[in-house]
Design brief:
The protein is mostly helical and 254 residues long. The protein contains twelve helices and no strands. It folds into two domains: 108 residues, no CATH class; 128 residues, no CATH class. The longest helix is centred in the last third of the chain and has 19 residues.
Length: 254
């Protein structure tokens, strides 16, 4: 879910393009507004490990619980974010902004601390929950506030420039489609680390280590993007393009 939260903010930005016709945009926005907060009916795909895991959708996936299932809710929130950005003065824009984004992110993540980065990756992950959350929060917090939040969220970030605190994942069998996810993890870690660095003040002592670690993951990830093994080759290019084009990073100042 966190990864989709991040993707929501990323994809909603997009390049400057002509917005849709007002009547069409209004119709699309109303469809999403009618469902993002509509909890039922709801289809849940959820593993139960005990009675305590039996919860309503608003508790299982609190960021996205409407629109029949959480995945559809992600799409609905993206629609509203995109239209609100491209048509900020439209009649639906205020409702669209209120339906999701920034206040909910602060509510869900602002108090988080000590993210267990040592638990990652979990077998076949291609995204890092800890780094994804950190990359998300730098998009909504002022630089100084973000630096303070990151201190409590990832207190182990080194200040000596060392990249050794987070080594790139190693794929022991690139023909295994699940293990190949770890090549994607290296690529996504690289862009998230670059994003985290972009959110910190210029003199922050953690920057050299973040940048060195990002570079190590970038090199490892890009090295794996080949056509040699279809198991990774058919999808890793999407992650690679996101990384090398700097998608989601602030525009360089001139």
């Amino acid at each position: 879910m966190l990864a989709h939260t991040l993707a929501l903010g990323v994809l909603a930005a997009g390049p400057a393009v002509a917005p849709p016709e007002p009547a069409m945009a209004e119709r699309f926005a109303r469809l999403a507004l009618a469902c993002v907060g509509k909890e039922y009916p709801n289809k849940i795909a959820h593993v139960l490990n005990g009675d305590e895991d039996v919860k309503p959708p608003r508790e299982l996936t609190p960021a996205f619980f409407g629109c029949y299932d959480w995945h559809s809710a992600v799409h609905g929130h993206w629609l509203l974010a995109r239209l609100a950005r491209t048509m900020p003065d439209a009649p639906f824009a205020a409702e669209a902004r209120a339906a999701g984004l920034e206040s909910r992110m602060r509510e869900l993540y602002a108090a988080d601390r000590d993210c267990p980065l040592a638990y990652e990756p979990s077998g076949e992950d291609f995204l890092s929950p800890c780094l994804a959350e950190a990359d998300l929060m730098r998009r909504i917090l002022p630089s100084a506030d973000y630096a303070a939040w990151l201190t409590t969220f990832l207190p182990g970030l080194p200040r000596d420039g060392s990249p050794g605190w987070l080594a790139p994942a190693v794929v022991t069998d690139p023909t295994d489609p699940k293990l190949a996810h770890l090549d994607g993890l290296n690529l996504s870690r690289a862009w998230m680390l670059e994003g985290i660095a972009a959110g910190l003040p210029a003199g922050d002592a953690r920057l050299p280590s973040l940048r060195a670690t990002a570079a190590a993951h970038r090199e490892a990830g890009l090295r794996a993007v080949t056509g040699q093994h279809y198991e990774g080759g058919h999808w890793l290019g999407t992650f690679a393009v996101y990384l090398v084009t700097g998608r989601g990073l602030p525009a360089p100042t001139r």
